[in-house]
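Predict the holo structure. Ligand: fe (ii) ion.
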Amino acid sequence: MTSPPATTTPDSDRQTPIRDGIQPPLIQKGHELQSFGTVRQLPIGLAHDARVYGCRRLNRLLADAQMLYGLYKKHHWLLRGATFYQLHLLLDKHAGEQLVIVDALAERVQSLGGVAVGDPRHAAEITAVPRPPDGVEEVPAMLSRLLQAHESILIDARDAATRLAALGDDGSNDLIVSAVIRTGETQAWFLAAHLTDTPLTRV
Ligand SMILES: [Fe+2]
């Protein structure tokens, strides 16, 4: 009786042991380093209280812009009817513009030494934009919902811009006026134009 051949490992299958320092530590836990609502000291010549107040107002607008972005995307997807294609494109364009505002507001908060609202669940706790139904509404109701969101944001943005200018925070004032207010007003104009009942072929 012959014994089976001894098992050998081919040279190509031989594994090199993983050396210390080459394996990334994939699972790590740390402590929160800065609490939400606090500001770090930065050399930008703005008083601590002004920066705390500015971050609070900016974070509210940031949360609203995040919700408005989500609302635009939801309606971009759920639209239907004869105007589907043009509104599908328009709402996506507006969503993209709101996303730019989201980033600008968040980075303004950071530049004031604060902590930007990042998690959408946190943003949902702060926003004043009402949650829409999870299902589908009629298209005019979708547009009306977007217009109401725009108006509440614009009212808050104008108040924030005025108060922040009075505190000497011209940078935040400029961002709110040039981005949040001007873009919001233009988007509201485009939306409202679609709610006007106009004849298509005869006067
Ligand atoms: Fe899309």
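The chain has one domain: 46-193. The radius of gyration is 26 Å.
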